[in-house]
Specification:
With 330 residues, this protein is α+β, with helices and mostly antiparallel strands. 18% of the residues lie in helices and 38% in strands. A 6-stranded antiparallel β-barrel has the order 8-9-10-13-12-11. A 6-stranded antiparallel β-barrel has the order 2-3-4-7-6-5. The longest helix is centred in the C-terminal third of the chain and has 15 residues.
């Protein structure tokens, strides 16, 4: 057991945990735990944008290096569906994005969109590459003077922990500031509390000019609350999701039974009309899902997308029929 403990301690120390001068052993221990437990939630972002011909260095013989500019940042998952969140500055002007997981695997990512405030961007990777979604701390639970921990990509592409302390809060715009004597990481680096919950994402260094997107030692850094950023991210995701399919029927909410729901009217020109569904038909199955309640029907319809062709089984008098209907947008 003693040998195992020494081995774990060596692993944590080797990964690089940086505390501010004079920090207690409790703070260092907390930083080590965050690195060990949360590292798999950190994704390195390599965002590539085109270089204009006027900016190309003719002395570089490698054609690929002359055509592309790479920007490096950090992203973290916000759901199990493969959505990652980072700062918008990381993927600004990017035309392709590659992600490096904590295990070193290189995978492609799509840029789903950027929020209207210009702060965050949402990326999408295959869901199987998501190895846990970190818990989030509300901005209301953040207070000045508390120790926090940056867990992000450092020079040399290693994932390290650096400690800092909250200096001020800006609840009106969903941000706060952190002072650290270390280089905290790249844009998008998550900031954790001692309970391994994410408080926010590193945006940029705060200087006398306000808004310089640089990262250097011994300064205050602006942090975007992840609680606030997640709301913006969900708005971006919703806009990109395919719209729910529309059938175009009216139903009698009082006549639900084991034979399904009663159709009272068909909207002219709707997918239902084109699929030959008629008033007084009873729908008892929607694309393989039994329909015995309004909830059954609602869940089945909202699970369909515009453009899907679905099979509806219905009772017309004493006849049982199956019709194919191609859903459309409302």
């Amino acid at each position: 057991m003693k040998i195992v403990r020494l081995l774990i301690l060596f692993m944590l120390t080797a990964t690089g945990v940086t505390a501010q001068t004079g920090e207690s052993s409790d703070v260092k221990s907390c930083a080590e735990k965050i690195h060990y437990n949360c590292r798999k939630c950190i994704y390195t972002v390599n965002a590539y944008s085109h270089i204009d011909k006027s900016e190309q260095d003719s002395t570089i013989t490698n054609v690929k290096r002359r055509k592309w500019r790479r920007n490096v940042g950090t992203a973290i998952p916000i759901d199990s569906e493969g959505h990652l969140i980072t700062c918008q500055s990381v993927v600004k002007d990017a035309v392709k994005v590659k992600i490096i997981t904590a295990d070193g695997e290189k995978i492609p990512a799509d840029i789903i969109g950027r929020d209207f405030t210009g702060r965050i961007a949402v990326l999408k990777i295959a869901p199987e590459h998501i190895h846990g979604v970190p818990a989030v701390t509300s901005l209301e639970q953040i207070s000045s003077g508390k120790n926090v921990y940056f867990l992000g990509v450092m020079p040399g592409m290693s994932v390290d922990v650096n400690c800092g302390r909250i200096t001020s809060l800006n609840p009106s715009d969903g941000t706060f500031e952190v002072k650290t004597d270390s280089i905290p990481g790249t844009s998008g680096t998550p900031v954790f509390d001692s309970g391994e919950r994410v408080l926010g994402l590193l945006a940029y260094k705060v200087d006398a000019n306000n808004g310089t997107e640089t990262v250097s030692e011994g300064n205050n850094y602006l942090i975007i609350s992840l609680e606030h950023a997640s709301v913006l991210a969900k708005q971006v995701i919703r806009k990109k999701k395919p719209k729910c399919g529309w059938l175009g029927i009216c139903i009698d909410l009082t006549s639900i039974n084991e034979d399904g729901i009663l159709v009272t009217n068909i909207i002219e020109g709707s997918p239902a009309a084109k699929g030959k569904i008629q008033p007084q038909d009873r729908i008892y199955e929607y694309n393989g899902s039994p329909v015995r309640s309004i909830r059954d029907f609602s869940e089945a319809v909202t699970g369909s997308k515009a453009g899907d062709t679905i099979i509806i089984r219905l009772l017309r008098g004493s006849d049982r029929l199956a019709v194919n209907v191609t859903l459309s947008e409302r």
